[in-house]
Each structure stands twice: as structure tokens, then as C-alpha cells.
Design brief:
Layout lengths: L3 H28 L3 H13 L3 H37 L9 H32 L4 H9 L9 H30 L1 H4 L4 H38 L6
């Protein structure tokens, strides 16, 4: 009976290590959002064999990219307006200096997001006038001589989304410092109650964000990859 113990332990350890690696992979995907999603989508485009289907898919991808750029540019403008109004609050004069650092950083990232989204939009217009628009776009996305995406080109295309996300996160962190600071710098009172309830709201929304990210990268995209017999990430 003693010889049976290792044979039971090895499958358990192997299963546990597989689960841990899966969780680490999902956490990395959430940390890098939307990098893995964009790369997987681009790889799918490159792997389509039928030329007509591939051209239609590439053109549909381009339209989605344009819509995302328009949305991000408008949303970043709104975020910049919110940040500018928040900097003018009277509370910022007496709060920790890090609040202003985070908010000014959020403002700069939002403004640069609008500028870069504008230039990426102009880039797509250069492809729109090309006779073989789908082929030119695919050439931009694919490494020369390889059936793999150009990571640097994908990074450039996702910079507006990344700056927008970082800008919003920077603003949220600054807001958290502003609201939660009374918990450790002042006697318990009205501001402390506000800080506690804001902390609860923040934790709930953070948990929802993590659930959404883990569902996308731990279930939905892997299920899609399994259905289409592809690999993710």
C-alpha cells in the first residue's frame, strides 16, 4: 500500500500546478488588457486560409478599430474634463500631494490619448484609398515571411486604449487617496464614514472588474479558441 502513495500524489500535484499556471496566465492577461485579446484576434485574421473570407474579416476588423478609436477619443476628452474640474476642488489644497500628481498624470495621458487616436485614425485613411485595402492592412499586421503578428505594430494601434485606461486608473487612485486619507490622518467623523462607504464601493467595483477580466481571459476566449481549434493566448 505504501507504494501507491506517490502515484496518487503526482496527479494531484500536476493538477494543482496546472491550475496555478492557469491562474497566473489569466492574471497576466488581465494585467496586460487588451494586449492578449488584440494579438489573438490578429492571429486569427492571419490564419484564415480562404482569401475572400480573410479580406472580409480584415475589413470588419478595421471598422471595429476605427469605432474604438472614435470612442476612446471622445471618452478621453470627457475624462480630461472631469480631471480638470476635480483639480479645482477646494479639498486638493489640503490633501496629500500625490493626489495632484495622479490627477495631472491622468490629464496628460487623456490628452495624449486624443492626439494619438487622431493620428492612428489618419493612418487608417491611408489604407482606405489603397486598391487592395485588405491586403495592405494584413501586410501591416503580419511579420514578413511569418504567419505571426507584428507585436510592435499592434502595440502602436492599442496605445490610445492603453493611455485611456491608465488615465482613468490614475484618476481613480488619486480619488481614492483624497477620499480615504481621513481614515489615517483625522479623528473619526463624517469624512471617515464617507471614506468607509467609498472604500466599499471601490472594492465591489474592483471585484467586478476582476471577475469580468477573468471570465474573458479564463473562460470566453479559451472556449472560443477550443471551438475554433486555435491557441490562446
Amino acid at each position: 500500500m505504501a507504494n501507491l502513495q506517490p502515484s496518487h500524489e503526482k496527479p494531484f500535484l500536476s493538477s494543482a500546478m496546472t491550475r496555478v499556471r492557469g491562474w497566473v496566465g489569466v492574471a497576466d492577461c488581465i494585467r496586460m488588457m487588451p494586449t492578449h485579446n488584440i494579438r489573438y484576434t490578429t492571429q486569427q485574421l492571419i490564419d484564415i486560409v480562404d482569401e475572400g473570407q480573410r479580406n472580409r474579416a480584415v475589413l470588419a476588423w478595421e471598422e471595429n478599430e476605427k469605432s474604438q478609436l472614435n470612442f476612446v477619443a471622445v471618452a478621453s476628452t470627457l475624462v480630461a474634463s472631469v480631471v480638470t474640474g476635480s483639480i479645482a476642488w477646494t479639498q486638493t489644497a489640503s490633501t496629500h500631494w500625490m493626489v495632484l500628481v495622479l490627477w495631472y498624470g491622468a490629464l496628460l495621458m487623456s490628452l495624449w490619448c486624443v492626439i494619438i487616436a487622431f493620428h492612428v485614425g489618419i493612418l487608417f485613411s491611408a489604407f482606405d484609398i489603397h486598391a487592395d485595402r485588405a491586403g495592405a492592412l494584413l501586410h501591416m499586421l503580419r511579420r514578413p515571411g511569418e504567419a505571426a503578428p507584428r507585436d510592435h505594430h499592434l502595440w502602436v494601434l492599442q496605445v490610445p486604449i492603453t493611455l485611456f485606461s491608465w488615465g482613468v486608473i490614475s484618476y481613480i487612485v488619486g480619488l481614492a487617496v483624497l477620499v480615504l486619507r481621513p481614515l489615517w490622518t483625522a479623528a473619526w467623523g463624517r469624512e471617515s464614514w464617507v471614506a468607509v462607504f467609498v472604500l466599499v464601493y471601490g472594492l465591489v467595483t474592483l471585484i467586478i472588474y476582476l471577475i469580468v477580466g477573468s471570465t474573458i481571459y479564463g473562460r470566453l476566449l479559451p472556449d472560443l479558441a477550443s471551438y475554433t481549434n486555435t491557441k490562446f493566448p
